[in-house]
Specification:
Elements lengths: L6 H9 L4 H9 L3 E5 L4 E3 L7 E7 L2 E6 L5 E7 L4 E2 L12 E4 L3 E7 H10 L2 H25 L3 H18 L7 E3 L4 H8 L3 H13 L4 E3 L2 E3 L3 H8 L17
Antiparallel strand pairs: 1-8, 2-7, 3-6, 3-8, 4-5, 4-7, 9-11, 10-11
Helix pairs in contact: 3-4, 4-5, 5-7, 5-8, 6-7
Length: 245
């Protein structure tokens, strides 16, 4: 299965040098592309899931539904992300994943990826790099929910979404199409929809963003970063060892 133009290649090549042979080895373990409809579940809470699924197009959410009926969104899933990470490392899933738009991903059996890592250890390394990036994102979400004010939370999340879309060529330098509804954003930030709407109006009133429908322009990027205490971080490339090292 050819990987030309796949956003996961964009992400991987930012961390690791991949030649044509490397890409061919990776493509060889992908079984097929699958497409899901909006609101279709990709991962069921409590079920076994043993695939790594590399998102090509579309959006989804990883979430936990509590007995009270309240939903906490753990991750906003975008092109270039990997579904099945970390659930494939455990005997069953402690969360669910549902598509929030039509979504297409390339399916790779978990065991096939493990075999590839034994044969070409650099692919194990690059998964560690992606895990480090995801851990840093989770840490910021904890700070959001625990210590940032609602307006700081929203500012930080908008900056994160923009950075992640920009990384895979799906955003402009200061603008992007917001791919998630206010309901999704509210559940990611621990807010009600009316409260979220009021916070959006504050960001507009303070001329930090402008918006038209779902098109967002980060009008004053520096001030928005200062408000959110947002600190952009770039992954360092995987070191290339020279012969004899």
């Amino acid at each position: 299965m050819p990987l030309t133009g796949h956003p996961i290649v964009t992400r991987l090549t930012r961390s690791m040098k991949l030649n044509a042979a490397d890409l061919k080895s990776l493509a060889a373990i992908f079984e097929r592309d699958l497409t899901f409809r909006k609101r279709e579940e990709l991962v069921v809470h409590g079920s076994e899931f043993r695939n790594l699924c590399f998102v090509k197009d579309g959006y989804a959410i990883r979430y936990r539904l509590l007995r009270s009926g309240k939903r906490q969104i753990l991750k906003l899933i975008m092109p270039g992300d990997v579904i099945g990470f970390p659930v494939s490392f455990f005997d069953r899933s402690s969360y669910a994943v549902v598509a929030t738009s039509e979504l297409t991903y390339a399916v790779c059996p978990f065991d096939s990826y493990i075999r590839l890592c034994y044969e070409q250890p650099q692919f194990g390394l690059v998964l560690s790099w992606l895990a480090a990036q995801e851990a840093a994102t989770y840490a910021e979400h904890i700070v959001n929910l625990g210590r940032r004010t609602p307006i700081e939370r929203l500012a930080h999340l908008l900056l994160e979404i923009h950075a992640r879309l920009l990384e895979v060529g799906r955003a402009g330098e200061t603008s992007f199409e917001l791919p998630f509804s206010q309901e999704v954003m509210a559940d990611a930030l621990g807010l009600s929809v009316p409260h979220l709407n009021r916070v959006i109006q504050r960001l507009r009133a303070e001329q930090l963003i402008t918006s038209n429908a779902r098109f967002i322009d980060l009008t004053d990027l520096t001030s928005l970063q200062r408000l959110a205490q947002y600190e952009p971080m770039a992954l360092v490339p995987i070191p290339v060892l020279k012969p004899g090292q």
